[in-house]
Structure to design on (228 residues):
């Protein structure tokens, strides 16, 4: 069964460093998402991406964040200058299309630890 | 402001019983409501989706109801098993440009043998 994959599973970085989290969505899906979950808290929406551009973003997704689909298969989330409060699980998700009876498929997550 | 509330206290039930989890929302007009399962350290896994014009949806031992007047969804697991122990997340899905999901805080279910 096709699945969303994410790398790395765990990333440790120093405050102020740049990190890139990688995702490979399901191949025929058209909508891509990043969510994050701080330990013990809700899953929070960060950004949605369709047709090579951001379609929606939350207040969390400020200028420090960016997304890219560089090669038609990978979908990346970059944090330019990490802060302690960026420590969380980051989940990538994909969806075959919007506005239909379609669920989002989530990856296993990347645990980001900012020291 | 928009709120989605799930019972934050863990629900403990005996194997074989029916588990009922509640999701309440305010200041939302969702097109769809979805339920996901999340195991510790893992990503959410989709279980069921119900549309705003549907009252009830079933899949095997799972049943979801959606009352847009009460702004509430109930999620039932019948004949529960210890393997059903997990956190269950309710998520609202507005039909908008990004179709983002807004999640509740989840309810942890523990099924005891």
């Amino acid at each position: 069964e096709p699945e969303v994959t994410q790398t790395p599973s765990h990333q440790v970085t120093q405050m102020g460093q740049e990190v890139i989290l990688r995702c490979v969505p399901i191949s025929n899906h058209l909508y891509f998402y990043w969510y994050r979950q701080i330990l013990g808290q809700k899953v929070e929406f960060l950004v949605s991406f369709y047709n090579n551009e951001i379609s929606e973003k939350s207040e969390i997704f400020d200028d420090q964040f960016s997304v890219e689909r560089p090669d038609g298969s990978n979908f990346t989330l970059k944090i330019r200058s990490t802060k302690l409060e960026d420590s969380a699980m980051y989940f990538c998700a994909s969806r075959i299309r919007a506005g239909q009876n379609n669920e989002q498929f989530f990856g296993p997550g990347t645990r980001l630890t900012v020291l | 402001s928009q709120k989605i509330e799930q019972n934050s206290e863990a629900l403990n039930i005996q194997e074989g019983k029916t588990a009922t989890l509640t999701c309440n929302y305010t200041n939302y007009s969702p097109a769809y409501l979805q339920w996901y399962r999340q195991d510790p350290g893992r990503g959410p896994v989709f279980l069921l989706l119900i549309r705003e014009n549907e009252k009830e949806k079933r899949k095997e031992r799972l049943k979801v109801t959606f009352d847009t007047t009460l702004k509430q969804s109930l999620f039932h697991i019948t004949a529960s098993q210890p393997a059903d122990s997990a956190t269950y997340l309710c998520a609202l899905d507005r039909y908008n440009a990004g179709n983002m999901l807004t999640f509740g805080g989840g309810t942890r279910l523990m099924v005891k043998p």
